[in-house]
Each structure stands twice: as C-alpha cells, then as structure tokens.
Design a protein that fits this description.
alpha+beta
C-alpha cells in the first residue's frame, strides 16, 4: 500500500545493485468544478491547471520558480496530470513518456546518488535507457493505491482559487479587517482535528479530516447544495451542444454562491479554507519511487519486459515486482507534504488574473 509521509527520510536497506530513485511531481489531477470560478476564467473547466500554466509560461506571461534567470520562456510540456491519475495503464504510460520528453521540474531520476534526468542535470541521450525503468514505475503506480488517495484529497477543492480568495476576504472582514488574525485562526489547527471523520462529512467533502462547524451553518449547507446543482449545467456546457443555454444557469448559480460566501460563519470559512489548503498541498507533493534489484545484477532493465507487482508495499516492508526470474524491490512514498501557510491566500487573487490571458489551443 502506498503511504503518505509528512517527513520523508530517504532510505532503502535492500541494496544489491544500482538503486534508482524516480521523483514525480504529479500536480493537480482534476479540472475545476467549482461554481465560484470567475466567468472570465472558465477555461479552468475545460483544461487542467497544469496545461494552462504551461502555455502561460511559454508565452512569457508567468515564470516558474525553478526556471533559471536566463530563461525567459520554456517549451510547454505535453504531460497531462489527468492521464497519470486516470489509473488506466495506457494513459499512465503516456503520462510517463510525456514527462520523459519534457521533464522540467516534474520528473527527476537518480542512479544511486547521481542525478541523470531533470532540472539541474545536463545528461543527454538517456531516454532509451530509461524505458525499462519507467516500465517498472508504470506498473507500480498502476498497482498501488497512492495516486487515488492523493486525488481524493486534491478534490477537497470545491472552491477553486477564485472561491478561496472570496472566502478568505470574507473571513478577514469577520476578523475586523485583520489579515493577521484571520491567518492565525486558519493556521491554528489542533491535533485532534486532523483525524478521519468521513462518517459525518458533507457530500463532496467525505475525505475531509476537519470537523464541520460545531454549530452548523445554513449558508455552508446552501453553498454545498449549489455546488452539487452546478455540476449538471457545467456538464452540458462542456459538451458544446448546439443551442447550449447552460451558461446562463452557470451564471445564476455562480451569483448565488457568491451571496452564500458573504454570509458564511467564521467556522464555516475556516472549514472550507482548511480543506482548500490541504488540496493545495496534495497538488504540490512529490511521489518518490525507489527501486533496486533483489539479487546481484548490473541493474540493466530491458524495456521490452512485462512487469507484475507480486507483493504490494507494506508499512514495514518494500514491495516486490517481477518479470520472469528477475525480481526488484521498491518503495513508494510521498514527500513535500508540509502544510501551506495561509498567507499564500493574500496574493492569490492577483496571481489568478494571469489565467485570463490563456488562449485555448
């Protein structure tokens, strides 16, 4: 079973040959579904956020944090997080191949302690040699349940960034205009809140680890009801059928949702924003797959082999993947799970404005 680790310590005690470490930053594996998305940014409904930001970076509208000072633009990646999170083996294969073509900061590979692919690495002409390694990774990702668990927490985002900004601004007003007080409340999460409470969560937020507002909130209930109602006109709008009038319904529900936000209680604001911040963490994690031959070998991995996981990873034992007589051990972990500070919300509204520059391909 894939596990989420809040503090990652690199280790692999079963070392009988070259040890390969593959880091993947999967990004957000879903499209926006929130009725609070600004009507000017409805491209979020049609395109994954990763694709939108890739094009904006290519056109020079935004800069990625990992870009060097001399880089003004970057070739856009063909990788789609929707493929990786699909749990369809063919689409997972395509996602890994697209990452291999343009790894950027989303794919890094080490052989023992030497990085051979990804940002900060100049090694060339290794793509063919990586096919065998990626065929192992592909089977592990498809077999383990880690990606679905990450996506389950990602989809706690029922606000989108546009809605999160609106809820945050309302929380600040409830705190008498104090950003510091609002952020202090958001960041103050007692340990007993971070426990599973799926049995009494609201629809669409079943995976939330946070308690619902203790005194209830009619506006929160209404907002969640509108979120559910919004999915039908959104689906029709995305179908591009002739005579499609669903956009008017979307506008009407969006307006009603904004009115709900303006009457949320303080506890309801904290509940929604904590879920959104948790989703943000899950959209920015790294998945580390470490593999090593189980027996003495040169570690050469022919790419034409067919692999099968015969023992999934356990809490205290690595997984085992085999092909014929060849056997490798593996671990799969999540890193970079640190909680996002709520101060990130202060500049988020301005950052989202760049999405209005996105022109669909």
């Amino acid at each position: 079973m894939g596990t989420l680790h809040w503090n990652y310590q690199r280790f692999f005690p079963y070392h009988h040959g070259p040890c390969w470490s593959i880091e993947i930053k999967p990004k957000a594996g879903y499209r926006a579904t929130s009725p609070l998305v600004s009507p000017r940014r409805r491209a979020k409904y049609r395109f994954p956020r990763f694709q939108i930001l890739q094009q904006l970076a290519w056109e020079g509208h935004i800069r990625k944090g990992w870009m060097s000072s001399s880089q003004r633009r970057i070739p856009p990646s063909l990788y789609s997080p929707l493929d990786l999170f699909s749990m369809d083996i063919t689409r997972i294969h395509r996602a890994l191949q697209d990452l291999l073509k343009t790894p950027q900061n989303n794919l890094k590979i080490w052989r023992d302690e030497t990085q051979i692919l990804g940002v900060g690495c100049e090694t060339k002409d290794i793509h063919h040699n990586m096919q065998g390694i990626l065929s192992i990774v592909q089977e592990i990702l498809w077999t383990e349940d880690l990606l679905p668990r990450i996506k389950q927490l990602q989809t706690l985002d029922i606000l989108d960034a546009d809605g999160a900004v609106l809820v945050y601004e309302h929380l600040v007003r409830l705190c008498n205009g104090s950003n510091n007080l609002a952020e202090s409340l958001l960041d103050d999460i007692p340990q007993d809140l971070c426990l599973p409470h799926w049995h009494h969560q609201k629809q669409h937020l079943e995976a939330s680890p946070f308690h619902l507002p203790p005194n209830g909130c009619h506006s929160l209930d209404r907002l969640l009801e509108l979120y559910h109602r919004f999915q039908e006109p959104l689906s029709v709008w995305l179908s591009d059928l002739p005579g499609n009038s669903s956009e008017k319904k979307m506008d009407s529900i969006q307006k009603a949702c904004v009115e709900c936000v303006l009457s949320l209680s303080e506890d309801a604001c904290l509940y929604l924003l904590r879920n959104w911040l948790l989703s943000l963490v899950m959209c920015d994690v790294s998945v580390f797959v470490t593999i090593c031959p189980q027996t003495e070998t040169l570690g050469v991995v022919p790419h034409e082999r067919t692999w099968k996981v015969v023992q999934r990873q356990q809490e205290a034992a690595p997984g085992i993947i085999t092909s014929g007589e060849v056997s490798w051990r593996y671990t799969i972990k999540v890193v970079d799970c640190e909680r996002k500070p709520s101060r990130k919300l202060q500049g988020r509204g301005k950052a989202e404005e760049a999405i209005e520059l996105f022109v669909p391909p």
